[in-house]
User: Which sequence fits this backbone?
């Protein structure tokens, strides 16, 4: 008899067709019983029949979910510059795993490309992470070039060397902090700090203060070079001779020599050695 009563109660709850409305659709009531006569699991009650107590239980959960969605919304955009592809991958992975509110919008191995992107309002990130020691343009030249022209992008220097090697020069070039490249936790904390308008480390200025100090100064000579002259200097800085540079660039030896001669002149020096030192940041452009 109890089975008949349960079936009768179930039909009274679902209607004569034995179907229950749930989540905007219909389900067979024979699969919804939780083993108690005429009772449905709380999460399977027909629409409109949830108890006030259950609604009060679900409401905080909904609010918590909405809050979590707001927390993980990307609010910090980041650009990455490093001449090492593995370092770029490491930084991107670390940021993705440890900083859910951030999004890497681009990464590049070219300092000239990074500067162009940072000065483009459609591509500029909130924070640029730049390596200090690179084959093309040094991170110091990149930072200084950006900071002379804008305060919009916060700059965080990263290095695999002792921080003392580059800290003072990075601060002078307009960066907002410096961190070791291989340690994840300080990198994330530093990104959050400079993105919020702060600085990371002793002696660093905010982006606005650094721009006020450097704004109006001449852009570093490295950016006076054409793309082909810059390419020739990149190869020269790797120790290649004129014939090897010509082969890499697929031009004649005389054309390669012309690119190098023009580059040396534009850099304001008199020898290849001086040009390479200035190009890589080993020497500073004091003019």
Assistant:
């Amino acid at each position: 008899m109890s089975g008949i009563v349960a079936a009768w109660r179930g039909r009274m709850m679902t209607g004569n067709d034995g179907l229950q409305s749930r989540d905007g659709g219909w389900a067979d009531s024979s699969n919804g019983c939780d083993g108690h006569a005429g009772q449905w699991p709380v999460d399977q009650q027909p629409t409109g029949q949830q108890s006030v107590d259950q609604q009060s239980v679900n409401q905080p959960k909904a609010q918590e979910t909405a809050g979590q969605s707001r927390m993980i919304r990307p609010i910090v955009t980041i650009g990455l510059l490093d001449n090492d592809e593995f370092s770029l991958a490491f930084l991107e992975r670390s940021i993705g795993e440890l900083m859910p509110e951030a999004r890497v919008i681009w990464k590049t191995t070219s300092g000239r490309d990074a500067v162009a992107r940072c000065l483009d309002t459609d591509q500029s990130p909130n924070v640029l992470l730049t390596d200090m020691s690179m084959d093309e343009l040094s991170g110091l030249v990149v930072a200084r070039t950006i900071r002379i022209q804008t305060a919009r992008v916060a700059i965080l220097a990263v290095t695999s060397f002792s921080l003392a090697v580059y800290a003072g020069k990075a601060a002078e070039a307009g960066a907002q902090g410096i961190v070791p490249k291989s340690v994840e936790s300080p990198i994330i904390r530093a990104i959050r700090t400079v993105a919020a308008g702060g600085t990371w480390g002793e002696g660093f200025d905010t982006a606005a203060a650094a721009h006020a100090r450097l704004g109006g100064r001449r852009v570093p000579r490295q950016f006076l070079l054409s793309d082909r002259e810059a390419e020739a200097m990149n190869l020269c800085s790797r120790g290649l001779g004129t014939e090897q540079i010509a082969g890499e660039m697929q031009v004649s030896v005389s054309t390669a020599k012309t690119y190098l001669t023009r580059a040396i002149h534009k850099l304001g020096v008199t020898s290849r050695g001086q040009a390479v030192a200035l190009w890589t940041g080993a020497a500073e452009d004091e003019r």
Remarks:
- The radius of gyration is 31 Å.
- Confidence is low (pLDDT under 50) at residues 1-53.
